[in-house]
Design brief:
66% helix; single chain; 221 residues; globular; mainly alpha; 2 strands
Length: 221
């Protein structure tokens, strides 16, 4: 079954793409069940679904906008993680995980590479679903920033795990041999921290903070 979905080069077959698209649709529909659980209405509204869809689309589009690449690989995008974190901040952990899972399917379709099923889970499904942990800090002071930092750390942990299990042999020759033992950590957190720092600076600008607060009020009204 696995060979039927994946090519010998690690990409996806036509059937693999169809399965991923179907899974993405199903995972997004699951947002209907989980998003809004912490709201007063206890029910997913059309408005909430629209905001989840917009955030998912913006996250996917901005993932294509690469500001720069790190020396040993890894691209810094234009705040692509922020949009998933916003859903977690507005609607809670379950909603963030649900949208993060749907987002992971889009990322997998965008740049698929398969070494094993668990590698795909680490690099895509678990890593992006982990962005939903941002919802834990939703009600605390500076909850968006705290949640964003936690989300970055959580995503990086799954990428690093996959790196130790599957990607050590892909370490570039230019990488310092003295840091070989922590290559997956350095590789993954280098671009995640760079993007995280840029995003935190942007959302800390007073005008941006006010705009995000206004959008949040609209999303929760």
């Amino acid at each position: 079954m696995f060979n039927y979905l994946v090519t010998a080069e690690g990409g996806l077959t036509a059937a693999g793409y169809m399965v991923c698209i179907a899974a993405g649709i199903i995972l997004f529909i699951l947002t209907l069940l989980f998003a809004g659980k912490n709201s007063e209405k206890k029910k997913m509204s059309t408005k909430q679904l629209v905001f989840c869809g917009i955030a998912l689309a913006l996250g996917f589009v901005t993932s294509y906008i690469k500001i720069f690449e790190m020396p040993w690989g890894g691209s810094v995008t234009l705040c692509s993680m922020l949009f998933i974190v916003l859903i977690a901040n507005w609607y809670g952990v379950k909603a963030g995980i649900s949208v993060g899972l749907a987002y992971s399917i889009l990322q997998f379709i965008q740049e698929p590479f398969v070494l094993s099923f668990f590698q795909v889970c680490c690099d895509y499904f678990l890593a992006f679903a982990a962005l939903g942990i941002a919802g834990v800090f939703a009600k605390s002071p500076q909850g968006l920033i705290k949640g964003y930092i936690a989300a970055v750390l959580a995503r990086g942990a799954f990428h690093a795990l996959g790196g130790y299990l599957y990607w050590m042999s892909y370490m570039p020759e230019s990488f310092p041999q003295s840091l070989k033992s922590i290559y997956p950590i350095v590789y993954n957190y280098s671009f995640l921290f760079a993007e995280g720092l840029i995003t935190i600076v942007i959302i800390s600008v007073p005008a941006v903070t006010r705009a995000l607060n206004q959008v949040k009020r609209m999303a929760l009204s």
